[in-house]
Structure formats: C-alpha cells, structure tokens
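Intended use. Records like the one below are meant for learning the mapping from a protein sequence to its folded structure. Do not use them to infer anything beyond what is encoded.
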Amino acid sequence: MLYLPREEGQGLVEYALILVLVAVVVIAILTVLGPQIGQVFSQISDEMGGS
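Structure written out for the chain above:
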C-alpha cells in the first residue's frame, strides 16, 4: 500500500482551512461593503413606499 489511512485526516484539514479562508473573505467583504448595501436597500424601500 502506498497510501496510509492518515491522509484522509489531512484532506479534512485542508477543507477546513479552505472554509475558514472563505469565511474570512466573506466577512471582510461584508465589513467593507455593508453600509453601502444597506443604503441600496433603504433607497429601494423608500421608492416602494416603505417607511
């Protein structure tokens, strides 16, 4: 056997690191663009007759 069963755990760690990286990127984007996105939704709500 060329591959040991331990490599399955390595794959899970790699997936976890990718998920953490994606989460950090999403949080950073929402932090930067959050207020602008809120303004867009407020403008849409105002134009539709919302309070």
